[in-house]
Write a structure and sequence with these properties.
Blueprint: E1 5-13, E2 35-39, E3 42-49, H1 56-62, H2 66-84, E4 89-98, H3 101-110, H4 112-122, E5 125-134, H5 151-185, E6 190-193, H6 199-202, E7 208-217, H7 221-230, E8 236-244, H8 247-250
């Protein structure tokens, strides 16, 4: 068995726009040093890892281990984020492993056109996330309860009014979110919608009604911030995050 196999994080330009930080100082998966495998105009960002820990059978077990997944994903993403500071980067999926550097070069050669197109698509651009939440409001009037209304009837009326008020608020928020999405899409290069997160995942009590990643020119970042602020309203609160490495628009689903 070989002493090591090659873990692939991402593909980037062979000649970075800016001088990168010492990538060998980066701690990759399993604390392994990061390096580049170059072929033509492309470079693969890799590290050498233990073949027993990253064999097909070992990976099958590890991918069911949530602690291993979280630890490996953090290391993987840290490398991608560091490389992205010196130029465009196209990440590959987690736990992509090759036998040796030569196999990585073959990949770069065979898919050079696809990789180059992916890097050109995101060059000079960044990913921003926008999440929209329905505003919880008590503006709607409570139901009229007459003196003749029995306590049970009054309770049912209140409960029905609360449900109706919540439904109206969610509808208003959804409409405001769609309007915001149209406005932001007009200034973004591209957008990718995701399913709204459950409150248990978002950590917010409010209902999420919008969850979109936008690809935006670096020069347009300040304009995006202003636009998001303008789209805040009575029924909608927007949360802007970023800039990030453009995972949503550049990830290369490649396997060995």
């Amino acid at each position: 068995m070989a002493d090591s196999v090659v873990y692939l994080y991402a593909v980037t330009d062979a000649a970075p726009v800016e001088e990168p930080a010492d990538e060998h100082a980066l701690a990759g998966v399993d604390e392994t040093p990061v390096r580049r495998v170059v072929s033509g105009d492309l470079a693969a960002v890799v590290s050498s890892v233990d073949p027993t820990r990253f064999s097909e059978e070992a990976l099958r077990r590890s991918l069911e281990d949530l602690q291993w997944l979280e630890r490996t994903a953090r290391a993987h993403n840290a490398v991608v984020a560091a490389v992205a500071r010196s130029g465009p980067v196209a990440p590959v999926r987690l736990a992509t492993v090759y036998l040796d550097d030569e196999n990585v070069r073959v990949l770069l050669n065979e898919r050079a056109q696809e990789f180059t197109a992916a890097l050109d698509r995101i060059r000079g651009r960044a990913e921003w996330g926008v999440k929209g939440y329905a505003v919880r409001t008590e503006a709607d009037a409570s139901p009229q309860v007459t003196e003749e209304s029995r306590p049970g009837t009054a309770y049912l009326l209140r409960r029905r009014a609360e449900r109706d008020r919540a439904a109206r608020g969610l509808q208003d928020a959804s409409e405001a979110a769609e309007a915001a999405h149209r406005a932001i899409s007009a200034v973004a290069v591209a957008g990718r919608r995701y399913q709204p997160q459950d409150p248990r995942l978002s950590g917010r009590r409010e209902e999420m009604v919008l969850n979109v990643a936008y690809l935006v020119d670096e020069a347009g970042a300040e304009g995006l911030r202003r636009l998001v602020e303008q789209q805040q309203g009575e029924h909608l609160r927007l949360e802007l995050t970023g800039p990030w490495a453009p995972y949503s628009f550049s990830t290369l689903e490649e396997g060995p």
